[in-house]
Amino acid sequence: MKEKKKDDGEMAEELEKNSYRFWIWSIASMIFRFCIILFPENINLSSRPELSTPLTSLCRLAEGYWLKQASMSPYSGSMYHGSPLLLSLLGPLTVHGIEGQWNHHLCSLVFVVSDILSAVLLRATGQQLEKAYRLNLRRLGLLKASRDRGILPCGDIAALVYLWNPFTILSCVGLSTSPIENLAVIVSLYGAVTRKQLFERRVPLAAFGLIMATHLSLYPATLVIPLIFLLGYGLDAPPRKLFLQTRDREGEPGQDKLTRTTQLPFLWKTVLHFVFWVLVWSIYVLVLCSLSLKQYGGLEEMFKRTYGFILNIEDLSPNIGVFWYFFAEAFDFSRNYFLIVFQIYMFLSILLPLARRLKHRPCFIAFVYLAFSSILKSYPSVGDAALYLSLWALFVNELTDMKHSFFIFCGYIGFSLLSPVMHNLWIWRGTGNANFYYANAMGYACFQFMFVEESVSAMLNHDQALKKATAEMTKN
Amino acid sequence: MAADNRYEEEEVRTDDGSPITKPRPIVRLGIFLVAHSPVFSVVFSAAGVLALLLLPLLAKNTYISENALMPGSARSMLSNRDASDGSKLVKDIKNFRLNHEGQVQRLIGKYMSEMVAEVYYQKFQPEGNQFHPLHFFSGPASYTLLRNVSCASYGVNVVGIIRAPRGDGKESIVLVTPYDFINGGDYEDLSLGVVSSLFSLLSRVTWLSKDIIWLVADSRYGDYRPVAAWLAEYHTPSFKVSDQLKCDELNTADNFRRAGTVAAALVLKVDGRSERFEDILSIYADASNGQMPNLDLINVVNYLAVHRQGFHVKVEKVVSLLSSSWLKIVGEIFEAVGKVAHTLNPDWKFGIPAAEYIEGSATLASSLYSQAFGIPTGPHGAFRDYQVDAITLKISPGFPPDSKARQHDFFLRGSQLLEGTIRSVNNLLEKFHQSFFLYLLTSPSKFISVGVYMIAFALLVASLPMVAASLYVDGCKALTKSTHNSAENFKSWKWLDAAKQVFALHLLGFIVTLLPYFICQVPGQHSPRNRSIMWGTTSSLLLVTFVTIPGCSPFSSRLHGTNWAILKSVTISAAFIGLCLMSIINFATAEIGALLLVPTCLLAQPIKPALRSRRVKSLLGAFCSMVLVTIGFPVIFFAITKGLVGEGLVGLSLGGEFWTWLESLWAWKSATYLYIGMVHLPCWLLCVCILFHPS
């Protein structure tokens, strides 16, 4: 008993040290961002197609705001395709400054703050997941107190991966709105994972994050499945069968309380609560939008110009996705067919099977969905990659045995560096053509696929390993 | 990217420990390659060097790829009258020089307007090249800086435009004659004479469909700068009122005229008398960062010059290679092999005479050398920044400048050559796109295309991923053995420590690359030597700081249990990525860089065990890697290249020379500088770390 207390004391000390280190690094990342923001004219990041897509470009937002100030619909022309709420929020910050340059420092400040906020929320989410991981291992009897230290503080790691990922930094200082979109997604996960009290989740917050993320970029709508699983079944855990085995083994009256918690039923009440709040928030958002677009065609116009724009892939300017080139080449009469095929592909072949196979790990499903949507969305940017990479870091404990990690890492680095080179070759030198840049985009997509595939198989292997270990313990 | 593919195949298998029951054949091939990587790396590297030597043999004859060009199909309309117009201008300029001071521009402008051309004068500031390390990735428009200008020194370009009778004013062809208005020599006058003969013809012809712009560039401040300034103004007009207008002699206000997108540009220079009797035409084509104009442009000029006008055409060569004996031996061997092959099967015709081989290699070497520097070889380089195909034609006449009879003939032939070229370009309906952009010349009429020369590079770097994979496997095994407990947890993340070190050194390289920007900001006048000393000391201080930081330093790896094999594997991967990237940006730099970096990386091994074992083989290996590392240091390599070219210099002036050389690289926004700082230097440092690794 004494030993355990001592252990706890040490752990608390370590935790404090860790949190101290975490804050130092996050402040350092903040300073680093400010340093880059102060030298913007050298780099001109905001015009990079890798960072700002038609949906996330702040320049387009400034244009939309200007149109609105001039009493025109912000969607007139084909400049702005984002949310009207974002326009009201960020628009005033983009107004003309002193030297004819718009005041991007204020906007950058907003992005930096939202990055930091995302990191903090991610950290809290990670701490919750880590706790759950520890608890589950203990319940399975695989974790002895002495081996407790081998578990990594995944919350800190994920938050720092988010803050120091070059993709995040670039999209933060490159004046794209993806930090805000990412924040919305992280808020929804945070709301679903953490609890206010023992059983009460922050359901309204989760619903709010989901609605905002969906409103801003549509694709996070898929997160509704993992969120329902999260609220219904609880946090990520090994497959339920294992717990049943353990219970069989330990059929003693003392363990009764434990086993009851492991066999949690689907919490219909919480889910209905969630659905209710989703409805409330979506009505709220729609009302706000319709108010702000009252003179300019109302909600119909907004749906056409934002979600229609996303689903129809109207803008074929180059980006790091795989669709622009394809639809630039496709014949007009087959365009609709391909649109439907591609958008459905995501739903049928990815969402449902994965949801079935991994339903005991809802947060991991969220990571996989976000990764897939970042590969297959119509206007992807590196900001999306930043989000799923940091979510991936929440599962470092489970994914220690991921295969080919070095190879995939090299591929990511190689292709991200190759992208500006190919762009330069095509646009500025004229010695390359669109094929060069598109080839790079396809290579990048391949590596992303490989990354997701390896992560999923590592997670399944992890479950297998747990199963084996429990089976051995049962035998003994 | 073929090598990348192979990498993929290998890595499919190397990472995982678990045996797969029946791997696919391609995977088995990968495993085989990785398992025997020492043998294959030697074979591949040797094949890469051999392929480089074979390149002159593989050169193909050039051909006009775009049918619309039809060079030489129309009869020249240039008459003696036009040629005498040119002679008159040259005579007038000479007289004007004798009587007046300066303002030759006026005279030329008057001549142009007499030929019904629109004339204007453009002022520009002489200096304008500033060190901006990140400009490689931005377009040409984003760095036109407007600073306070002094009236004391500025250049004036004279520009004349002939509107095409059949054109819509949307396309144009540019003729450039660099001319020093203050102290231009007799030969420079000749270039004006040639173009004015042509201009007088073009003002009358009916077939023109693209406007003709004649730019007389003020070459007092170098050939390149005036052309670049004119192009910048042409493509990105600045709407701010420039200070230059205030200090006005020539009325230049607000009359800058344009003539549509530039389809092609020809720069004509006449300089120095040739040693032969005949006129020699040299073609310069390399623009910044190893970019070349479309091969068709060179083909047209070459075809017309050789087959119509009887010029002796040549491209640059490394003269010292022509007399080198080893190249002669190689050439003779290839010739003998070719002959043997020809006797075996008369259809095999790949042998070329040894003399031709040496010529080709010397030209190829010069091509590689100038592309690798990334510095344009003439004013045509400025056009490439705007995606305009341009070449410089330098004519060395075979007569003294005062010979009137031959001068007339020279004007006739020179302007007929230009007329034919312009007529061909005039026929084009699109941009030049049909022929090659990526090629190396081995003679004016022979070229090696990208598909051929990339093989040499691919073979050279192919060994890198193989060796990286095999080292990775070895390193992982060793690590699992040595630190059993902690390694078990992170089966596939053992490379993280090594990656951290590699990243730290690349970061250091990045900072060192940026340092000159700040050193240039240091107030006060400093000689290049002092600046280079400043740079050297700050860099070494930084290196020391980096090495003392725990976790980043490769020398502290004992604590972390990283072994050198994994460090080397990550280093090699970084070198591979860097070289592949560079090969796309500038092939020649990557090829030369690979020749240096690949053996250094492959041979780098800790010398401590080698010294301890005292075996001849390992001692020899350690010695070789030491020599390679010494040569690989950029400053020493620079000195050696200088020595090879013929300017032997060793000593204190080396630092200053090196700095000046780097300054020229920045001035042209050469990616070679970025390569040296961000790929070569870190990889070199890592190799040094591996050499002195305390294993």
TrEMBL record, chain A:
The keyword Endoplasmic reticulum applies. This is GPI transamidase subunit PIG-U. Its main location: endoplasmic reticulum. Belongs to the PIGU family. It is a multi-pass membrane protein. The keyword Amino-acid biosynthesis does not apply. The chain crosses the membrane at residues 20-39, 102-122, 205-233, 274-293, 305-325, 337-355, 367-394, 406-428.
Automatic annotation (TrEMBL), chain B:
Keywords: Membrane, Transmembrane, Transmembrane helix. The chain crosses the membrane at residues 29-55, 450-473, 502-520, 532-550, 570-598, 619-640, 672-692. The keyword Transmembrane applies. Pfam families: Gaa1. This is Glycosylphosphatidylinositol anchor attachment 1 protein.
